[in-house]
Amino acid sequence: MVVLQIHQFNGFVSSVSRAQTNQGRRRASTTVCVQTQLAPSLTQKIMESISVGGEAGGAGGAYSYNALKRLDNIWSNICTQPTGPQETQQIVSRVSGFSQDYSMGNNLVGTFDIVVCGGTLGIFLATALCAKGLRVAVVERNAIKGRDQEWNISRKEMKELTEVGVLTEDEIEEVIAAKFNPNRCGFENLGDIWVEDILNLGVSPAKLVETVKQRFISLGGVILEDSSLSSIVIYNDLAVMQLSKGDTLSSRLVIDAMGNFSPILKQIKRGRKPDGMCLVVGSCAHGFKENSSSDVIYSSSSVTRVADSNVQLFWEAFPAGSGPLDRTTYMFTYTEPQSTSPSLEDLLEEYWKLMPKYQGVSLDELEILRVVYGIFPTYRNSPLPAAFDRVLQFGDASGIQSPVSFGGFGSLTRHLGRLSNGIYEAIDGDLLDSDSLSKLNPYMPNLSASWLFQRAMSAKQQLDVSRGFTNELLHVNFSCMQRLGDPVLRPFLQDIIQFGPLAKTLGLVMLTKPQIIPSIFRQVGIPVLLDWSVHFFMLGLYTLLSAYIDPLLRPSLEGLPSKTRFEWKRCLEAWKYGAGLDYEL
Question: Which stretches are annotated as coiled coil (predicted)?
Fold first, then answer.
């Protein structure tokens, strides 16, 4: 069973906008020897034919072919690095004593309740906290602005932004660039499943981020753009940050919203190689005549060979808000970082071959407006507990997103209310030690259970199942969920794993196609299945605790001491969100 979302690219992602062709020229040697050079790839030709505008901060902000090569270099280094801890830059350090006993220099910008590092998604949490009356600053290494490429999301998730005071209903309508239905799930000619209102909105990040940014400023928030974080020193009473321009900020709490490749996250994980990776490539193009529906997940082929690696390729496609003939298509795959893994450019070369057949158009008929690509690392042990006093990971940096979902905007909207309330209570009660902060990023069995799904969707390099196994497994699972109805299918499609729907689907799959069970064991392996069984049991336990024990405990919480009350409230939230019971149909 697999749930997929394309809410927003929040790993390393890039996009390329339209342009004029730059043709490389061969230079012939005047000597007898002729110097040859490698012919440019189709990807290079297309991307260099697209104009490069100004870069935006955050995901999707880099536009050039050179940016693709830089990201591929990062991906190559991840694939070839040894397993185990690595030496990393020490961004965060701890000092005994109080800040007043040490000199902070002459460039102190101010003292805040909270400083959020990373503005593209961090601005959402910062605004929610500012609306509660806290003094909040946002530090962003670029400018805080959204990219041109739309984020795809459902209306239910957008409405969660109004509940925390980040947006109004009218502002939600203003940032929606596209609406479309129906939405398809399909697997290599095995049949399609059609649903309504799943990821059926295209939201303009440029408008959305700017709207939230202005709301933040109007609430008294402080923004420091074009400033990178250099270091954090943790004292008994404050965290003191040094920025790249020499400025100093002090804060009671630092929130790391710098994404999957945060330097603080790298220090905490000691440079450890990710357990899995989702690689995504795609484009937004003009010229699609059939453009009213979307693909939430689609597979048009079995396991195939790209470069030196077996890959199972999947697709998503959405109408774009830039015009009625404009459409965005994504091709993605799940893999483990290893030396034989394909590069993003390898995948883009395959994309240009396969996308026209997938969409029923010729590449010559299309005008490429934008190219998108990204890498999204995942770790089994997520979410990440706080490793330091006064420092908390948020969004993709915390690992709160599903391992089968590339990007964190959907998980951000889902958890924004829970986290903004919890952070406010932590500040109010001065509960900023690492143990207290860790309760804001607790173990969630539904998230851990999703690991099995990524493993089932990844192609092994030594195949011991048929090449069509993944499509067959996905089709039977989605067919069973459709038979069980919306209470089972819709939570899955919106990245919510619940015990009841999962148990029903597993049971129906075993009854419908028991012969597929041995292949599942061979594909994912006994150790992974045993580990998953523990999380499945915990998912059932959390469901029981949230449904029956929570109502008995909650009325008595107000009479408890503040620290005990804080801990119990976070525990009840962990039961609820860890069981997926925050989802309402």
Answer: none
Q: Which pLDDT tens digit goes with each residue over 444-486?
A: 999 999 988 998 999 988 888 999 999 999 999 999 999 999 9
Distance in angstroms (rounded) separating the CA atoms of residues 404 and 376: 10
Domains of the chain (ranges, CATH numbers): 53-77+281-370 (no CATH), 92-184+194-272+386-442 (3.50.50.60)
Per the rule left: phi > 0, alpha: psi between -120 and 50, beta: everything else, 142 is beta
Between CA 514 and CA 507 the distance in angstroms is 10
pTM, rounded to two decimals: 0.91
CA distance 161 to 123: 12
Instruction: Give the C-alpha distances (Å, rounded to integers) separating 10 from 4, 54, 113, 158, 314.
Output: 15, 19, 26, 17, 19
Confidence label for 407 from pLDDT (cuts 50, 70 and 90): low
Structure token pair of residue 401? 């997103």
Residues 356, 359, 360, 364: is their CA dihedral positive or negative?
A: negative
CA proximity to 497, closest of 542, 431, 454, 447? 447
CB 163 within 8 A of CB 417: yes
Tokens of 337: 């970082």
Buried b (16+ CB within 10 A) or exposed e, 467-493: ebbbbbbbbbbbbbbbebeeebbbbbb
Distance CA 114, CA 90 (A): 21
CA–CA dist 398, 385 (Å, integer): 8
Main-chain dihedrals φ then ψ at residue 366, nearest 5 degrees = -105, 145
Strand (E) positions, 87-160? 92-94, 108-117, 136-139, 151-153
The whole-angstrom separation of Cα 340 and Cα 355 is 24
Are 407 and 259 a contacting pair, CB within 8 Å? no
Angle, helices 344-359 vs 65-80, to 10°: value is: 120
Contact between 280 and 13 (Cβ < 8 Å): yes
83-115 as b/e: b if 16+ CB within 10 A: eeeeeeeebbeeeeeebeeeebeeeebebbbbb
